[in-house]
Model the fold of this input.
Amino acid sequence: MLTLKQIEAVYWVSELGSFHGAAARLGTTQSTISKRIHELETHFGVELIERGNASATLTLKGREVIDDFSAMLSLRQGVLHRLAGDESFSGRFRFGVTEMVALTWLADLVAAIRRVYPRMVLEPRVDMAAGLRHQLARHALDLVISPSLESDAGYVTHPLPKLESAWMCSPELIPAGEERLSLERLAQLPVLTHAEGSMLHLRLLRELDRLGIERGRVLTCNSLIGLAELARAGLGITYLPRAYFAPYVEAGDLRGVEVPLALAPLDYAIVHRGDAISRRVAALIPPVCDFAGVACRVERKRDGICLGEGI
Done:
């Protein structure tokens, strides 16, 4: 007899390349995955999975049927949706976002998903765009929200509003009245950037190279809040999301500075494969996407500054 659990086992072993990966994806054990596939192969007298030392791959017969298996699983999900509705879905949904999403509208997204899928188990992860794409390719994530990448061509993508940023520094670092910096003046200052590998970091380094500015003056930090605090301390000039860090400027701890570096706003996008649940979750995202919606709140204290709600 052919069962959907057997089909699931074969499908996810083929997608993830291992029994361990399939077991983790389906919330079961490797022995259970192996048993389901063995029962299916024995019943039909065929071999669907080649068990190698390093990975598990489809046999020729497995390749013949894997597209049908995928279609059957998609059809099952559609039938369940029609019969029971979205609120009946109780599986896991793993999605990845960048730090900027986590700081601004992630909480609103979680609330929107829970309203539609109250029984869904949400597993968000925060990482840089490249790391999130790697996890998506390994099926460790179902959906990603991050700056667009060239590698997105193989996925379903939906554009989101751009993320506007601006150059900022401590008022003590640059004298009053010097709102526009020359390249020569910029070269004299340490440049504070987001973590290596982030889109902001990579784009900034490319522009610095184009302008011939020495890279030795670039200091990195893996936290946007940390960058703002380093800049507030007068350790350098930095490039931060404008709306979120506006309270720093309003409080007088940072000031905006014009710099002749052509850094366009970051194009954000929703990226996923195209399964039914991911498509429905993706439709919930645009209404809550708002990089200016939750600004970093700065509160004065006797001993300095602290960060409140929105962090």
